[in-house]
Amino acid sequence: MYAGYQTATASTLPYTHNSLTFDYAALYFNFTDKTQYSYQLAGYKNDWSKWTNKTQKEYTNLPEGNYVFKVKSRNIYGVESVVATYNFKVLPPWYRTWWARVLYVAAALLVLYGGIKIYTMRLRQQKAMLEQKVAERTQEVVKQKEKIEAQHEVLQQKSEEITTQNEALQQKSNEIIAQNEELFQQSEEIMAQRDAIEMSNKALNKQNYQITQSIKSAETIQAAILPFEDRLQTLIGEHFVLFRPRDVVSGDFYYIEQVGNVTIAAAIDCTGHGVPGAFMSLIGYALLNDIIYAQQKTNPAQILETLRQELRNALKQEQTGKQHGMDVAMVTIERSHDHQVTVHFAGAKRPLWYAVPENDQLQVVKGSNVSIGIDYVEGRNITSQQLLLDKGTVLYLGSDGFADQNNTKRKKFSGRRLRELLAQNRALPLAEQQQLLEQALDEFMVDTEQRDDILLMGIKL
Length: 461
Fold this sequence. Notes:
Strand order of the largest sheet: 9-18-17-14-15
CATH architecture of the largest domain: 4-Layer Sandwich
Largest sheet: 5 strands, antiparallel
Distance between the termini: 58 Å
Number of domains: 2
CATH topology of the largest domain: Phosphatase 2c, domain 1
Order of helices and strands: EEEEEEEEHHEEEHHHEEEEEEHHHE
Radius of gyration: 43 Å
Number of strands: 18
CATH class of the largest domain: Alpha Beta
Shape: flat
Strand content: 15-25%
């Protein structure tokens, strides 16, 4: 058919021919390859299609009914043609015709009649079976009556035996009364002991309240060392911080400071959690401030190497022999006016993950196999790596708490699953990424307790 020519052809098609292909064309002489078409099949889908250069449209398995195929064209100048139409009707299949429905009704009536006949026959058979069962039950009842009479004689004999036993029980009852008097005396002693325990519990509750208040004060102190949201926004721009202490205070903390044109960001996982971990975090924060501001060190490897030595000195590990420490992922960011950013990374047992724009893979930079505060016989060192990254790259730093969280089956979330989740949502705004991460974590740890402090940071360059 030709778009631009009004037609009113009508056809009737059997249901076996309900798949049609329409070919159409427009009689434009200039730039025919730029001619576009829009079509509509009224009675099936009443919306006009988008403009396209295709000159063919196929419909398959159309239900019975009346249809009007409409098509119009538009040349390169935007001039639309008159709508061309084609009317046709698809007949229903034979099993939906009126005579087929009559056959269905007749078949149903025939089945119903046969069912009634069969049901009547079964009722007669069941009646005969019931009469036989009634006769059998009557014989059983007679036998049971004779058996009950025999049992009655046995019960009479047992009743006499029970009377004898009751006399013995009465004697036992007298003995129990005497024992009850003794138990009453013991109960009074237990009540006195209970009063003493209640007094002890009150003292313990008072001590617990005082300890709880002290821990809440420690929470306030620890929160004061963490940068506030407005400062984070100023220093690193778009970001998220997923921070969940296991207890009131945390052994994980994050550190973000600015020295000249260098931004220093770190995620630190201290030994332990709760109050011991919080003390370690305060010591780590104080040492980092001294190293960065007093000693003027901004290279992440130098910062972490210095932190290793000063933490051992602060905890007097040479004298005590105890090795408490921390794992760290640290980056320094130097922004320039071009489209790239210089990032230096150093890690103590913790990696750096980053997602580059237009790349669906999450990149991983492993940290050094060194933990801050641990003395190694073979003399390991922390090294730094320099990366030149495009603006828009997202850096991820964190502790191992997220990956190590278990579910009700004691199965860990795992680092692999966390990396896949980060890679899947890498292009979303960081606020949405944080929501999806927290949702995945909440769903994974339903009906379980948090086993460690959790810290994960996202920074967009």
